[in-house]
Design a protein that fits this description.
The complex is a heterodimer. By secondary structure, chain A is an all-alpha fold. Chain A is built from 10 helices and 2 strands. Classes of the chains: A mainly alpha, B mainly alpha.
Chain lengths: 315, 325
């Protein structure tokens, strides 16, 4: 019965189909598509590295923009990006890992609450980044921020674009990334470890805290790194929630606005007063952001590869 | 004699100490329950996040439907009364037709480019490629996925646009074709990864049965593996589509942003997402323009949400089908 159910997928006589050049041609086309992807990655990264490398000096990394952003460096943007992703990770990782622990260690797979959480995680991952920007403005700034200002009797401190609101918006955007990778890491821990720990009399939480989490740490780290990489590269969610065109000072409080690498690229490439003078700086900034995100991604890929090899080795 | 057993016990369990405070069974039970509840709250944060997005994007968009003052300028009727998008001016015009046409054009170009390339490369990786090449290809695709969209937008704006213009002779350097290509680059990783996962989930026995019947490897891929993974391939295409519709920075930088209704991809276009990104920072909170942009956001959200739900159904179907086999 189960064998015959395969039949509809098979045409009656595969052998009668034209073989000759069609087969190798088809195979070659798929190979060509793969090659095209590799080439495009090479062209993009190569072009940016070629044009950006000359700009990349310590002065460029350590100085502030000068002369209407046609000279100087990008230190404020690097600082702002770092502050942004650090705040994001602090808000994000506990929730994401907690949710993953709940989903994998506590939840009954077919309970309605579990299904609702999984449905939300999947669909949250598909929400366009610009909608997160709208949400950040509509919820964090116009609603939460205003309520805080009203309650504290302040003028406008919290109810305006700020570092904290941009970080929280990005945290929500990256929540699915952390949940999914942390859950994968927990899944990779063999059952025997849980059973051994529980059999020794450890409680559920003691087992999670002392046995599972250390084992799952590479996976959790992978998720955190991926979220940092994505957080550093996303511009749409921070357009209205805190990123600033230019600031003469560094952000010192969570309610300050900030400069950011991705937003700086957008500004330099679309609103520069002098395109030719800006171009070297622009390429340099793009190279910095690209190197940052690619290195983070590479670390995550290697870490995950090691985790999977570790798991496969256990068989 | 009587001392010996006690000494043995003490030696075997040096870690045991008297149960006090938080270690007492009762306190332990309370702590466990508290932690369980806390973790449940963490899990609920995903649900709450999605709900809050719906509520607060809709909340700012609602005046378009219900507020009389706003509806004088921006209402559903006004959106289709004119084919002009000129929200800033003495008499603002909120015709969203150019934005819909622009989005459609860019998305069609992107899908026309990304679906064949993404699916074919996934077939190559899972069916034909030697293990070593596959292991090299997948990180490359992940690297492409890791390139921020603002960088792809930058590349399309500075480099790709010139190439596209010299190849097509388009009048406007930034146009739907250029933006569509760059957008395609942005969604290829999604299509590739989901597709490749689906193909790899097809049991080996399917392929072996086909090969044992004398079918060639490409005939097996085309007639057996691809149809068996069909639901997964559909899911991959839908997820790519949802990303293409919602993607912002690439189209904002590469499309030229002129709200023109026309049939050719060589004209500059303005998309829904790019309009929100370009205009929202400068509007007065609560103005008709502000509500309209949130309405466009709600439209984007609903569209991508429906596409994603459909993709989820396809994934479920694939899982059931392969589990049942």
């Amino acid at each position: 019965m189960s064998t015959y159910s395969l039949a509809p997928a098979l045409p009656p006589l595969v052998k009668d189909r034209p073989q000759g050049w069609v087969g190798p041609g088809f195979t070659a086309l798929t190979g060509l598509a793969a090659l095209l992807i590799v080439l495009m990655v090479g062209v993009i990264v190569g072009n940016i590295a070629w044009h950006g490398a000359g700009t990349l000096t310590w002065e460029f990394l350590a100085a502030a923009p000068k002369h209407g952003m046609t000279a100087g460096g990008i230190f404020p943007a690097i600082f702002g990006t770092a502050a942004l992703v650090i705040l994001m990770v602090i808000a994000l990782v506990p929730f994401g890992v907690g949710a993953a622990i709940y989903l994998h260690e506590y939840a009954r797979p077919d309970a309605w609450f579990t299904r609702m959480v999984r449905f939300s995680v999947n669909n949250l991952a598909g929400v366009p980044s610009i909608v997160f920007g709208l949400f950040g403005l509509g919820f964090f700034i116009q609603f939460v921020g205003r309520q805080i200002d009203r309650a504290a009797g302040l003028d406008v401190v919290w109810g305006q674009p700020a570092l904290i609101w941009a970080a929280l918006t990005l945290a929500l955007l990256n929540l699915p990334v952390v949940i999914v990778t942390a859950e994968e890491a927990l899944r990779a821990v063999p059952r025997e470890m849980r059973e051994a720990s529980l059999a020794l009399g450890a409680t559920r939480w003691q087992t999670i805290w002392s046995v599972l989490l250390p084992q799952a740490m590479p996976g959790i780290l992978t998720g955190a790194i991926l979220s940092v990489s994505r957080g550093a590269g996303e511009v749409a969610p921070i357009l209205f929630t805190g990123a600033a065109y230019f600031l003469p000072y560094l952000p010192t409080s969570p309610t300050d606005q900030f400069m950011e690498l991705g937003y700086h690229i957008y500004v330099l490439s679309t609103q520069s007063p002098d395109v030719d003078a800006t171009k070297p700086l622009l390429y340099g900034t793009v190279l910095v952001l690209l190197l940052l995100t690619l290195l983070l991604n590479l670390t995550a890929i290697l870490l995950r590869g090691r985790m999977r090899a570790h798991l496969a080795g256990r068989g | 004699m009587g001392v010996m057993p006690a000494a043995t016990t003490a030696n075997a369990t040096p870690a045991l100490r008297p149960l006090t405070g938080l270690d007492r069974p009762g306190a332990r039970r309370v702590r466990e329950a508290l932690i369980g509840g806390l973790l449940r709250v963490c899990a609920f944060s995903a649900v709450a996040g999605l709900l809050l997005i719906v509520v607060f994007v809709m909340r700012e968009a609602l005046p378009v439907l219900f507020d009389a003052e706003t509806r004088k300028e921006a209402s559903l009727a006004a959106f289709f009364a004119t084919a002009m998008w000129q929200p800033v001016g003495d008499i603002p015009k909120y015709g969203i037709l150019p934005l819909l046409v622009g989005t459609l054009k860019v998305v069609l170009v992107a899908m026309g480019f990304a679906v064949p390339v993404g699916v074919a490369a996934a077939v190559f990786a899972s069916e034909f490629a030697p293990a070593r090449i596959r292991e090299a290809l997948k990180p490359m695709v992940e690297l492409l996925a890791g390139i921020p969209s603002v960088v792809l937008g930058f590349f399309a704006l500075i480099v790709l646009a010139s190439w596209v213009q010299s190849m097509t002779g388009a009048v406007s350097r930034l146009n739907a074709l250029n933006a569509g290509f760059a957008l395609g680059l942005g969604i290829i990783p999604t299509i590739f990864s989901v597709c490749e996962d689906a193909l790899r989930a097809v049991p080996r026995s399917y392929r072996e049965a086909s090969l044992a019947l004398g079918a060639s490897r490409w005939a097996t891929a085309w007639n057996v593996t691809l149809p068996a993974a069909g639901a997964g391939v559909s899911a991959a295409i839908l997820l790519g589509l949802a990303r293409a519709v919602g993607e912002t920075m690439i189209v904002l930088m590469a499309s030229g942003n002129a709200a023109i209704v026309s049939g050719t991809p060589l004209d500059s276009v303005r998309t829904l997402s790019a309009s929100i990104a370009a205009e929202l920072a400068e509007v007065v909170v609560g103005s008709p323009h502000y509500s309209t942009l949130f309405f466009l956001g709600a439209l984007l959200f609903s569209t991508t949400f429906l596409i994603n739900v459909a993709a989820g159904l396809f994934v479920d179907r694939l899982r059931r089908r392969l589990a049942g086999a």
